[in-house]
Amino acid sequence: MNFIKTIGQGFTGVGLEKPVYKVVEKGQGYEERQYEACKWVSTTVQDMSSESARSKGFRKLFNYITGDNEKETKIDMTAPVATRIVPGAGPNCENTFTVSFYIPPKHQDNPPKPKNPDVFIEDFPQMNVYASGFGGFANDDEWIRHARDLSEKVKEKNIHQEFYFSAGYDSPFKLFNRLNEIWMMKKQ
Q1: Which CATH number does the domain housing residue 83 bear?
Q2: Domain enclosing residue 156, as ranges
Q3: C-alpha to C-alpha distance for 152 and 166, rounded to whole angstroms
Q4: pLDDT tens, position by position, 105-119
Q5: What H or E segment, with its residue span, contains residue 81?
Q6: How far, in Å, CA of 35 to CA of 139, rounded?
Q7: Angle of helix 50-65 relative to helix 140-153, nearest 10 degrees?
Q8: What is the domain count for the chain?
Q9: Of the four, 45, 102, 123, 129, which is 20 to 30 A from 114 by CA?
Q10: Please, is 187 exposed, middle or buried when counting C-beta atoms within 10 Å of its C-beta (0-12, 13-18, 19+)?
């Protein structure tokens, strides 16, 4: 039954648990959020395309939550699928994408160990991010354009310049009212 629930939640986005945060400040076209410290399950992919990297990473993480873990435990799907993007050194270089699923509260204290050596449990510290949302189906150009827009809006803030996050909240089967976000992490 849990497997069917996970599939259903993944397709509809209804009832997905999300990491806890509070809004610290609302800016022009963005908000600063403070996320609580929590665990995520992650995998890192080298690729030229964020779309390709997210797809590869998503499959590995989906296998983990559907039982490819030490305890063969089924874990509910969560949102968003967050991807930390570290741009490559040049225009024709691979970027480093770390694709992550938030681990639901039920498993936060003791998440099952992944069987796949490419998948790992990651502790996200309490962090402040500047977040800006947009709708529709996002491709590589859209993610980059929105990252540049947010970077311009928060250029006077003390942010990490070497990476940013994309966050997708919806299944590819959801056609309307989609939510995508760019996150830029505030230096502590």
Answers
A1: 3.20.80.10
A2: 2-185
A3: 16
A4: 999 999 999 999 999
A5: strand 81-86
A6: 26
A7: 100
A8: 1
A9: 129
A10: exposed
